[in-house]
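Reviewer 2 asked us to include a model.

Predict the structure of this chain.
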Amino acid sequence: MMCRTYGLCWLAFFSVGCASSLEAEQLVVDLQEPPATQVPMHRGEDGEWTRLTPPRDLLPDDVLAGRVDAAHVAFVGRVVSKEHRDVHLPGHGRVPHTFVTFEVEDPVKGGVVGETATLRFVGGPTEDGSVSLTVSGVPEFRVGERDLLFVREDNGRTLCPLVQCEAGRLEVVGDTIRSPTGHVLVTEAGKTRFVAASEPARSSVGAPMRRADVVRRWHRPGPSAASLSVSPGTLTR
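Predicted model (structure tokens):
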């Protein structure tokens, strides 16, 4: 395979190497800005982004509420399916994308219990399986998992449809809410913040905030999640 270089957008670039005949070539997109996460980032001299220890007041109420405000729809949903398709991006040719379908279980802003919404994310294997694209800061999903999602209105017209991308997805593990780094959402003195997974056992760090607490505290009306859904078939041909 001839080695080629592509520019995906003004802040993300990736290169295609010579693929092995035994396995797909792994592509990694280097975001020139730090991935949007719940924890501070630092870029070293080698260009790599590393996560710093989060401060105790990292996630005050207005930050989580701000994500709800910025979202067109927000909900707790279960991943019911994933589909990989090559999407034509003007000026860049066909780029692999992953279409993830969620079933709404707990509406937070808009949404209806039981409806489904398909969201489009850049990355994943190509349709022929010869190349796989990994994008730093864009979340990956597993069928069966549950997530608290803050979805923007531009699903299908952007590389990642979530508010602040990775920061717009919080994992639901059991009945707790966790950041991409595994920190648990707790509430203390009227504020919410993330702490290490081992800390909620200590009374001094506050009580874990349950998914029902999030729904009850920030629930508000909004459009249906299905109204944002995109179909792979209408975007890839």
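The longest strand covers residues 73-89. Residues 7 and 13 are 5 Å apart (CA to CA). We have added this to the supplementary material.
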